[in-house]
Write a structure and sequence with these properties.
This protein is of the alpha+beta class and 278 residues long. It folds into two domains: 150 residues, D-amino Acid Aminotransferase, Chain A, domain 1 (2-Layer Sandwich); 87 residues. It is built from seven helices and eleven strands. A seven-stranded antiparallel β-sheet has the order 9-8-7-6-5-10-11. Strands 1-4-2-3 form a four-stranded antiparallel β-sheet, with helices on one face. It is globular and about 65 Å long. The N and C termini lie far apart (52 Å).
């Protein structure tokens, strides 16, 4: 009877594990970082390095001030208001267009245009944002799976009101050390030679070329300078293009929580050219 109960418990645990894998991997189109030569495995191992430094630079207001102080060649969206007490939002004179953000984590923002908002909703959502410990939020609570994102524990959580930027394009640079792996001109990817690629396919190279932003060299210089100064091995550098202007967006240290899908062939390419000798 005792062994039967153990078998039942093990069966239930296996079913639960399979359901988790199905929900996270199949439904959300991500992968577990099990392939030892893969980008995600490197990302997973690297996420536990320099977590305090990453905490500082992943804080949306702190990193913005760092850019203002050290890189005046980059523009930033202006912070109009900052608070740790969302009730103080009731005393702020909001412009017609703005973005409300939590300085910690991801996907915790509200975009307002044309003065259409509910103040009570802004206050309550801000309170909810500040209660979230993004390092172990949602599925990141699951033990032994390596889902946590530890650097978010070191954010100085606040709510900010930021100017709204219209007519922008997202442009990202993924780099290991200061070597550029690929450019992400959302939604398209390009390798370091500016060839279009599909990171999910075995035959990942395409014939199209990246139309380079006019100030691409400015962004590349920033990648080099940031690495030389801070020695954080894996960073996705997020920028916003607005006409000829380059706006700094944020620094991402665990892109897609180290679970974006890559083809085996592209994973091998990244490993052989960027990871193997580290």
């Amino acid at each position: 009877m005792k062994y039967k109960n153990i078998l039942i418990i093990l069966t239930i645990l296996i079913i639960i594990f399979n359901l988790i894998v199905y929900k996270l991997v199949k439904h959300h189109n991500i992968e577990l970082p099990l392939y030892k030569k893969g980008f995600n495995n490197f990302c997973q191992n690297n996420k536990y390095e320099k977590v305090k430094e990453k905490g500082f630079f992943s804080d949306k207001q702190q990193v913005k001030q760092y850019i203002i102080d050290n890189h005046p060649e980059l523009k930033v969206a202006k912070t109009l208001f900052k608070t740790k007490n969302p009730e103080e939002l009731r005393n702020f004179n909001f412009p017609p267009n703005f973005v409300l953000k939590c300085t910690s984590g991801a996907r915790m923002f509200i975009i307002v245009e044309n003065g259409v908002y509910d103040l009570d909703h802004l206050v309550e959502e801000s309170k909810r944002f500040l209660k979230i410990d993004y390092s172990t939020h949602h599925y990141r609570k699951i033990p032994f799976m390596g889902f946590e994102e530890p650097h978010y524990k070191y954010n100085d959580k606040s709510i900010i009101i930021e100017e709204f930027l219209d007519n922008i394009e997202e442009f990202r640079i993924m780099a290991i050390k200061n070597k550029i792996i690929y450019y992400d001109h959302v939604p398209n990817y390009f390798d370091s030679n500016f060839n279009k690629i599909n990171i999910n396919k075995e035959n990942y190279l395409d014939n199209d070329k990246l139309v380079k932003p006019k100030k691409l060299e400015l962004m590349i210089d920033f990648v080099n300078e940031f690495y030389q100064k801070n020695k954080i091995d894996l960073v996705r550098y997020d920028f916003l293009l607005r006409g000829d202007d380059i706006y700094f967006g944020e620094l991402t240290f665990t892109p897609d929580n180290c679970r974006r899908k890559y083809s085996k062939k592209y994973n091998d390419f990244i490993y052989d050219n960027y990871i193997k000798d580290i």
